[in-house]
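Aim 2 progress update. The chain analyzed this quarter is reproduced below.
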Amino acid sequence: MTEPRTAVLADAKPAIRAGLAVALRSADIYVIAEVASAAEAIAAAVGARPGLCIIDTDLPGGAIDAIARIAAEVPETAIVAVGPEDEDVLLAAIRAGAAGYLPGSTSATGLARAMSGVFDGAAAMPRLGVDVLVQAVRGRSGNWRAPGRVGAPLTRREASTVDLLRQGLDTKDIAVKLSISPVTVRRHLTAAALKLGAGGRAELRRGTDV
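Predicted structure tokens:
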């Protein structure tokens, strides 16, 4: 079980970690570990099971691999990647299991505000990320495809999540109904959108029966 409003910071630069830790504390998010490598990020996340893990995409040892390992071993932890405004990097992070992506130019205060929103069920995604993901889901992106995903059957939990969305429930209500976290709700909806070829929640509400 993850610890609420706790975070692991994974960034090779101590000054950045220190500034972000202060900003997060002002948002009532308790930093339980500051690490400087992918291996340390995995160990800290698996060991402490925080509510949130913030990972710089330039993390030594492989940020994308770290995201994938943490997403697989601690699925209830929301992972937010921080990196360049680069489509390939953004999609690699999301495909690996990140629940959100923010530009490295985001201020510490702005990032802390976004992280607080993640705990409240909001998505941490810049406009660029939304546009890229919509294009990818619809199969129009020239840099990324999801072979084998569109048309794949939904899992029982994905189908339940989509069904509740179509009944008009929001992320928080779905989380309560299914006894899961808002982060997990968003993960199920993203997976369902990819499989159904839907371009977002509005299309999931109208879309193919599951």
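Strands lie at 3-10, 30-35, 50-56, 78-83, 100-103. The mean pLDDT is 80. These observations will guide the mutagenesis experiments scheduled for the next reporting period.
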